[in-house]
């Protein structure tokens, strides 16, 4: 019987560190892994372990001060597979620098940790690249952190993992099929829960040795990206160049260090924004519910799995806790009232209906089958309180998340979780409504979208742009261009091969005038695809000037003109300043190149001459 894997929370460094020398003895073994509950389904894996210790997923954490000499041995306990080991080399290094360890053999690695940063080591027994290790060797990876001198370790290290095996002919009849996605060896709702006090600073290192990219999204707060890298090198940004974001696309093989402040009390989540990566599709055992609050797993109304962390921020002692949806700052005027209807229209996507939002104007509700995909732009003002009453006219429950908005937890839109204590936001049942109250603290480009059964409801159209303008300002349609990319049907439908651009398979052209500056607001809410935006003039790539990311205006040092190409993950928004010097034709090329069925769409941009004055 293979040994049982232990989920590694990356709290304890491996090896023996004495007098500036780390001695480390690693092994690669067969083991049995319980990625969800300790009594649920298990899967066979190859795992790293310290000699004489338990197999760990992720592998033992290597963590040393810069300048440490590392003397490591690696024993391959597999009987019939050579292990190719990457990452136990000096930094920066070559991605092709490896140790090859024959079955039953032991190799040595001797290096000096001379470049601080977030790295990792990884292995394969299938002679594959890092993105081609689907199952047996998919969890052969461990963190490798090199700290600057005199560093106090207040950060946490997280390793993302993906295990999947399709039920092909070789696996026919085998119970060891399916898929699961994990953080530090466990899938939600069994991932570690975090408790902070309002005002705490949080420092997280994220490592992605999996075969998939992961757009990681934090509810309710912004984070600074302090560094990005991979297993060979790490780029640490100076403070003036650190991106401020709510969603960071961590590419396959990539790393990122994120720092944020838990400024407001309540329950929050940090999760991958690929819908399938938090869906029960990515689960080996039935998932009855997301969990009723952070004190226990429970059976809440939101069924999620996979790449999710639960966060509880407690009020600072002596502060007055915020209540719930009825909380209004009485020093401000009554909130602006909006009524947002959630409706469906049959046959929009083949056999599937379309789902969309409709903003009610006046006292008469729109027709019950009228929808907009994407939903209507919600134009709000910074600092102006708003109360959005969401009315559910569907025949199934729903919820709305105000993506990127810094708001109180109860209005955040994760049913059965958002809020605090026993006062948790409910699911919006058919025929019922929920009023979300918040005051946008910054101007920018944001998103509102469903946060229930995202693989279905988001794919059917439940998303829209949310634009916050400065006080006393208005959305200037003459010089603003919104481009929203979403799915053309549910993400679990086999025939979903392309995306919708502003709600259309063939997008309507945009018009701009030569010589005038424009703000292009790009939104990727395609639940399944990384989207590549490229502004083209014929066969040549144009130029633009970045203005904002995830609603946060960029500082001057980051607003330099550059080639007009941007790769985004679901949940990312980006604003660019665009100006065409001459009349003619441009294209905003929108593509999903990194998928089994790549697609590409051209959004025409007609550049007209300025009228004579």
**CATH class placement of the largest domain:** Mainly Beta
Specify the number of helices.
1
CATH topology description of the largest domain: Immunoglobulin-like
**Cα Rg:** 25 Å
Query: What is the CA-CA span between the terminal residues?
Result: 85 Å
State the CATH architecture of the largest domain: Sandwich
| Class by alpha and beta content | mainly beta
Report the principal-axis shape: globular
Beta-strand content estimate: over 45%
Q: Spans with pLDDT under 50 lasting ≥5 residues?
A: 289-300, 322-331
Mean pLDDT: 91
CATH superfamily heading of the largest domain: Cupredoxins -  blue copper proteins
- How many strands, what sense, and barrel or not for the largest sheet? 8 strands, mixed
Give the number of DSSP strands. Answer: 48
Return the domain count.
4
Q: Percent of residues in helical segments?
A: under 10%
Question: What would you say this structure looks like, in words?
Answer:
The radius of gyration is 25 Å and the shape is globular. The model is unreliable at 289-300 and 322-331 (pLDDT under 50). The longest helix has 4 residues, at 454-457. By secondary structure, the protein is mainly beta. The strands form nine sheets. Strands 1, 2, 3, 4, 5, 6, 8 and 11 form an eight-stranded mixed β-sheet that branches. Strands 14, 15, 17, 19, 20, 21 and 23 form a seven-stranded mixed β-sheet that branches. The chain folds into four domains: 3-153, Cupredoxins -  blue copper proteins (Immunoglobulin-like); 193-314, Immunoglobulin-like (Sandwich), CATH 2.60.40; 336-469, Immunoglobulin-like (Sandwich), CATH 2.60.40; 480-608, Sandwich (Immunoglobulin-like). It contains one helix and 48 strands.
């Amino acid at each position: 019987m293979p040994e049982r894997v232990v989920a590694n929370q990356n709290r304890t460094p491996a090896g023996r560190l004495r007098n500036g020398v780390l001695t480390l003895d690693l092994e690669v073994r067969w083991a049995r892994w319980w990625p969800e509950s300790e009594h649920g389904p298990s899967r066979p894996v190859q795992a790293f372990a310290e000699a004489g210790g338990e197999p760990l997923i992720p592998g033992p954490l290597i963590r040393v001060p810069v300048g440490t000499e590392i003397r490591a041995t690696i024993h391959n306990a597999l009987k019939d597979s050579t292990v190719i080991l990457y990452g136990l080399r000096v930094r920066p290094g070559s991605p092709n620098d490896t140790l090859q360890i024959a079955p039953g053999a032991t190799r040595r690695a001797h290096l000096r940790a001379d470049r601080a940063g977030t790295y990792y080591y990884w292995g394969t027994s299938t002679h594959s690249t890092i993105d081609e290790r689907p199952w047996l060797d998919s969890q052969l990876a461990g963190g490798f952190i090199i700290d600057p001198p005199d560093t106090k370790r207040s950060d946490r290290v997280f390793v993302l993992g993906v295990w999947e095996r399709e039920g092909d002919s070789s696996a026919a009849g085998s119970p060891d099929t399916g898929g699961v996605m994990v953080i530090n060896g466990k899938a939600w709702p069994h991932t570690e829960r975090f408790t902070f006090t309002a005002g705490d600073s949080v420092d997280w290192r994220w490592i992605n040795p999996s075969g998939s990219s992961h757009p990681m999204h934090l509810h309710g707060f912004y984070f600074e990206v302090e560094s990005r890298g991979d297993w060979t090198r790490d780029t640490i940004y100076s403070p003036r160049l650190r991106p401020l974001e709510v969603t960071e696309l961590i590419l396959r093989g990539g790393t990122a260090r994120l720092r944020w402040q838990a400024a407001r009390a309540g329950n929050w989540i940090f999760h991958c924004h690929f819908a399938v990566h938090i869906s029960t599709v990515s689960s080996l055992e039935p998932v009855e519910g997301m969990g009723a609050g952070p004190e226990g797993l429970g059976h809440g109304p939101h069924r999620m799995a996979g790449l999710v962390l639960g966060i509880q921020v407690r009020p600072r002692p002596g502060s007055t806790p915020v209540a719930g949806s009825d909380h209004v700052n009485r020093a401000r005027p009554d909130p602006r009232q909006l009524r947002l209807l959630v409706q469906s229209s049959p046959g929009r996507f083949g056999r599937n209906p379309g789902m969309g939002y409709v903003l009610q104007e006046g006292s008469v509700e729109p027709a019950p089958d009228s929808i907009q995909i994407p939903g209507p732009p919600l134009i709000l003002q910074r600092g102006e309180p708003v109360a959005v009453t969401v009315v559910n006219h569907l025949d199934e429950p729903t919820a709305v998340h105000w993506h990127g908005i810094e708001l109180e937890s109860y209005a955040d839109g994760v049913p059965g979780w958002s809020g605090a204590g026993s006062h948790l936001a409910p699911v919006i049942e058919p025929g019922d409504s929920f009023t979300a109250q918040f005051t946008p603290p910054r101007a920018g480009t944001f998103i509102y979208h469903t946060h229930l059964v995202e693989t279905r409801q988001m794919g059917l159209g439940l998303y829209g742009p949310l634009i916050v303008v400065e006080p006393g300002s208005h959305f200037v349609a003459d010089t603003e261009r919104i481009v929203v990319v979403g799915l053309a049907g549910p993400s679990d439908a086999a025939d979903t091969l392309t995306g919708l651009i502003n709600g259309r398979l063939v997008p309507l052209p945009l018009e701009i005038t030569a010589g005038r500056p424009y703000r292009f607001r790009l939104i990727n809410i395609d639940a399944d695809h990384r989207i590549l935006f490229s502004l083209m003039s014929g066969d040549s790539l144009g130029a633009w000037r970045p203005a904002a990311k995830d609603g946060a205006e960029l500082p001057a040092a980051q607003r330099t003109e550059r080639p007009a190409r941007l790769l985004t993950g679901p949940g990312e928004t980006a604003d660019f300043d665009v100006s065409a010097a001459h009349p003619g034709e441009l294209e905003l090329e929108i593509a999903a190149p990194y998928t089994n069925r790549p697609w590409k769409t051209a959004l025409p941009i007609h550049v007209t001459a300025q009228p004579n004055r």
